[in-house]
Amino acid sequence: MRYEDDRSALLSQLATSIAVFSFVWGAFESVTSIVDPPSIPKTERKDDNNQPVARVVYALRSLKPDGVYHCRLAQIRHLMTVMPEFSLPVGLGAVAVAKGG
Questions:
Q1: d(CA 7, CA 13)
Q2: CB pairs under 8 A, 24+ apart, for 49-55?
Q3: DSSP letter at 88?
Q4: Do 37 and 56 contact (CB within 8 A), yes or no?
Q5: Which of 38, 65, 90, 95 has the fewest CB atoms within 10 Å, measured from its CB?
């Protein structure tokens, strides 16, 4: 009986996770089609990929963080040090140093 209960709980979690992922992915695709990010220059395309998802990733990687971003990141690091209960779980790693571009 315990096996069936555990199996049912696991399948319920799986179904919930798939539903949430489908919703989030659908929302991402909708926003991508509305924003319509610019094409990736041909010289920088990987495998000639210019699909919307690749264009969004390229646009995000092209952003250059400013001084405010670095200041906020330092504040987050400080808060995570003084309030470890709000730090990331062990398997997720720490906040890394951001690279501009």
A1: 10
A2: none
A3: P
A4: yes
A5: 90
Find tokens 């798939």 and name the residue: 18
CA 86 to CA 84: how far, in whole Å?
Answer: 5
- Structure pTM? 0.52
Q: Cβ atoms within 10 A of the Cβ of 38, count?
A: 10
Structure tokens at 78: 């400080």
Contacts of 32-40 with CB under 8 Å at 24 or more apart are 32/56
Q: Write out pLDDT tens, residues 7-53.
A: 999 999 999 999 999 999 999 999 998 988 999 999 999 889 999 98
Calculate the CA 92 to chain-centre distance: 13
What average pLDDT does range 64-84 have in this prediction?
86
